[in-house]
Specification:
Elements (H helix, E strand, L loop, with lengths): L10 H12 L4 E5 L2 E5 L9 E8 L16 E7 L5 H11 L5 E6 L2 H17 L7 E6 L8 H4 L1
Parallel strand pairs: 3-4, 3-5, 5-6
Antiparallel strand pairs: 1-2, 2-4
């Protein structure tokens, strides 16, 4: 697959700007900190679901933001985990009062960032909600032998 790159240091910003232009009815994109959330977020009474990880694996994670999917995504720089501040900002944008589930891929940088963000969110008790839960997904389950996956 070919990719058009104007400037290496602008890849993630330009991708986010393109998503915002292409789907203003579906997404709200923030550039500082970098987050992608549903246009109708927060949805009152819904447990919000967010995920994130390094950019360069598109359409992950922003490509899965929308009704019936993720409520928010935190794109890191190219092949770099998002920061805890990004995750906290995203969670605050999508939290509709019923809590937020942080879905984490089993990559060390992602795990560290999402766990740190969860600790910050627990400590702040933003909007007084019973807030944060994390779920780490095993990346290698599809390539594991059947016995190891059971």
């Amino acid at each position: 697959m070919k990719k058009l790159i104007n400037a290496v240091d602008a890849i993630v910003r330009e991708q986010l700007e393109g998503m915002a232009i292409a789907h203003p009815d579906l997404l709200r994109v923030n550039l500082d900190p970098k987050t992608i959330v549903r246009a109708d977020a927060p949805v009152p009474g819904k447990v919000a679901v967010i995920s994130g990880g390094g950019s360069g694996h598109e359409p992950l994670h922003g490509g899965y933001v929308g009704a019936g999917m993720l409520d928010g995504a935190c794109p890191g720089e190219m092949f770099t985990s998002p920061t805890p501040d990004q995750i906290v900002a995203c969670a605050e944008q999508v939290h509709g009062g019923a809590g937020v589930l942080l879905i984490v891929k089993n990559y060390t940088g992602d795990v560290l960032s999402f766990e740190t963000a969860a600790e910050i969110l627990h400590a702040e008790e933003i909007r007084g909600a019973p807030y944060w839960s994390t779920m780490t997904s095993p990346c290698a389950i599809a390539s594991s032998p059947p016995v190891a996956a059971a």
